[in-house]
Write a structure and sequence with these properties.
The chain is built from twelve helices and four strands, in the order αββααααααααβααβα. It is mainly alpha-helical. The protein starts with a helix and ends with a helix. α2 runs parallel beside α5, α7 packs across α12 and α10 packs antiparallel against α11. Helices cover about 45% and strands about 5% of the residues.
């Protein structure tokens, strides 16, 4: 079959070393980050290009922010690196900051401050160095936002056809075989769900598979089963009074348990024309940005770290 395909399309055979647009096409099943070891080699190569031992800490900080932090950005937009892989990159940056020695050097650097404090913004006492894990998650989160915001985009339609043809990105199942990019999208989806919601304008959002009120994820668990031939509503506007932007109280209370029905009836309907709009709650414009996505991921990692210490 491979020979027949090659004769038709005149394409070369692919192996584990095949690169397309800077990314390896074939990734190991166990640890996909291994295929990106060349990023780690770039870090080491950059480090050897500077005589860091004679540089001031201010100069090292500038190099870390402008050079080291930018090397993996392109790759981080497509795959979530493992924590082990990111730790190796951070070790290079940390040693460069404290002593300027190479990663392989056996000399142990004297750390005068916890590395976690280096990530804190300068205005509150830190150095403003980007957390690589938060940066990685933030870039994937931004990609997830775009897929949810533009469901008719070419990429969104391809992913939907392959991975969640019968539902939305919000309820796509986790147990299907998936690409590294889609696996990364699913891993950061809880972060997207916690910060994005639909503002109701025309009520065209799906009742069952979109974040249109704060308890939407448990809506199936709080549904009152109706007797046939009852047809369940599909869109949010089906829960409104006909030709009005107001909740049909009797319908809502008959379909859902008391707690969920109250949550729905308290959900605001925007009295204006337009389509339901996906909103990011951490920016004034309601749009997800690289900065706000990074900050959200960084705060989440910090919160988890504090909880682990407890």
């Amino acid at each position: 079959m491979k020979i027949d395909i090659k004769q038709i399309f005149q394409v070369p055979y692919l192996d584990s070393n095949t690169i397309h647009l800077g990314h390896p096409l074939i990734l190991p099943a166990k640890d996909r980050s291994v295929a990106y070891n060349f990023v780690y080699d770039k870090f080491k190569h950059k480090l050897s290009a500077y005589q860091a031992n004679i540089l001031s800490h201010a100069t090292r900080l500038t190099l870390i922010k402008s050079v080291f932090a930018s090397i993996p950005v392109y790759y981080m937009s497509n795959i979530l690196f493992s924590k082990k892989f990111l730790t190796k990159l951070i070790a290079i940056i940390r040693n460069f900051w404290w002593t300027g020695v190479k990663y392989e050097c056996t000399t142990r650097s004297v750390c005068l401050r916890a590395w976690a404090d280096i990530y804190i913004e300068k205005k509150i006492g830190g150095r403003g160095v980007r957390n690589l894990q938060a940066m990685n998650q933030g870039l994937i989160l931004l990609a997830a936002w775009r897929l949810a915001k533009e469901p008719q985009s070419h990429l969104a339609l391809i992913l939907k056809a392959k991975y969640h043809h019968d539902t939305s990105i919000w309820r796509a199942k986790l147990n299907k075989p998936k690409s590294a990019f889609w696996a990364a999208i699913l891993k950061v989806r809880p972060l997207l769900i916690s910060t994005a919601f639909y503002q109701l304008f025309d009520g065209s959002s799906s009742i069952w598979s979109s974040p249109w009120f704060w308890e939407w994820q448990t809506i199936y668990d709080n549904l009152n089963i109706q007797m046939p031939p009852f047809i369940y509503p599909a869109m949010v506007k089906d829960l409104w009074v006909p030709n009005q932007k107001a909740w049909n109280v009797n319908l809502v209370r008959s379909l859902f348990t008391s707690h969920t029905a109250n949550a729905i009836l308290q959900t605001r309907i925007v009295n204006s024309t337009g389509q339901d709009t996906l909103v990011w709650k951490f920016t004034p414009t309601g749009e997800c940005t690289t900065k706000s996505a990074y900050k959200h991921c960084f705060n989440n990692l910090t919160f988890r770290h504090i909880n682990n210490l407890r």
